[in-house]
Amino acid sequence: MNEALVTDGITHDVTTDSASINGETILEAEDLSVFYGETRALNHVSMTIPERQVTAIIGPSGCGKSTFLRSINRMNDLISSCRVEGELRFRGKNIYDTDVDPVALRRAIGMVFQRPNPFPKSIYDNVAYGLKIQGIEDNMDHRVEQALRRAALWDEVADDLSKSGLDLSGGQQQRLCIARAIAPDPEVILMDEPASALDPVATAQIEDLIEELAEQYTVVIVTHNMQQAARISDLTAVFLTGGELVEVGPTAQIFGNPENQRVEDYITGKFG
Amino acid sequence: MSHRESADLAFETTENLRRKRLIGRIFVAICLISASIGVIALIVLLLDVIYEAWGWLNLTFLTSPPSQLIEDYLPGARGAGIFPALIGSILLIALTAIFTIFLGVGAAVYLEEYAPENRWTSLIEANIANLAAVPSIVYGLLGLALFVRAIQLGSSLIAGALTLTLLILPIVIVASQEAIRAVPDSRRQAAYGVGATQWEVIRDVVLPAALPGIMTGTILSLSRAIGETAPILMIGAATTMFRPPITDGPGGIPIPDLFGPFSAMPMQIFDWATLPQAGFQHIAAAGIVVLLAVLLSMNALAIYIRYRYETKV
Lengths: 272, 313
Known about the structure:
The complex is a heterodimer. By secondary structure, chain A is α/β, with parallel strands linked by helices. Chain A is about 30% helix and about 25% strand. Chain B has a single domain, classed as MetI-like (MetI-like fold), CATH 1.10.3720.
């Protein structure tokens, strides 16, 4: 499995893990620190993320939750002043090892962003883009349809796949972006506040979708909406100011009976 | 603060308000005059050259070589005109366009997408902006020293095109950089997110989105270049050529004579304007109308491209 991250081995076998136990660790951060220049954005974070569950990362603005998410698929590499210390293991392989190609890594870890960002192309081409650059050419129509179905968008767009992705509503655009992210069949989907730019109806659709996606994919979602985290996640990690992971545990426990006083204060709305 | 009695409320125009309104109206008038002067000057110029050229500009003028005799230009005579210079200008601009697009877009992509953010890059960027302000005659001197003499291209079409390329390159680079910078970062991230390499991001996301802006900037620069006289005068372009810079290629197909002498419309117009016979002022005017027609169609193309492709961002 580790070879999948190295430059040439871009194929990864999804069938082998269909039998794995629910809750097996897929991602593991150990003593992970991230710096932007001299500023520390993540402070010695250690946590594990289970496979095929929804892990929510919550915390106030500037707590480093987005930084943590972006360190999982090495999107932070695009910022030249960014520096990473510690380890982040994906199926046991440290993704910051020198033989890991971030481009190959991102093919196994899809991402959905805060604002819907479809390409100014047709709906079909938006979904097909990731497949094409990953060299997957066969059964394209079927793969595009599958991705759109899984993203709960197929019924709304099936008649007009040549329409521009930008002509869709905000909520549809975000589901299109989810379809684009899952089309190449990644193992993990990272979501950076995916519903924060959407209206309540579209938000509810995205939330339903996330729960469905977790049957097949590992979902890591950053949100500053605590109700959202409580509704959709299995596991919740609370980051507080200074890039510090304060508490992580089953969502019911974090929201019902947190161990840490600061977490309790944050969740009950005393600050943040 | 207590509410005033309604009897105290007075909404009449005061002297103070009236004075302020007057100042406002004077200001609008000044702005309107400023805006009109440019347009009026252009219209007057156009009407004047069209009036001067009237009767002299016809199809024969477009398809005939020039003559030193005013009689040849008259309707029904053997025919004389701007043909070699018109073809010369079109070939010159086409060549310049090819060089400029490759060099300009290449430089802009490097500076925006690849170059590390350091002092060197800022120094290069600042100097490109400075180069845009260098007078065109200086580029002419550079072209003469570099292309005509050092590389020994002579006063050829290709030397002219390379000189004009140097002249407009800074403007094209700056315009292209701005177009690339305007591509939303979220779209780059979307492509990176599905596992695109930097080259794929530039090819699939950045360039398609920046292309209308790049094309508009390039075409507007080219329409500046087509009217330039000083640089091609410096490199020794002919004032009058009797045949266009075209030669026989393989199989007798006419191809541009890259290394041969050439003339261009500004040179030919300049030549006509300096001839002593009175009728030549009309010939020069006819030449100007042709030059302006080419120039305005290029600008129209730029506007069309911008309108057609930039509506969706």
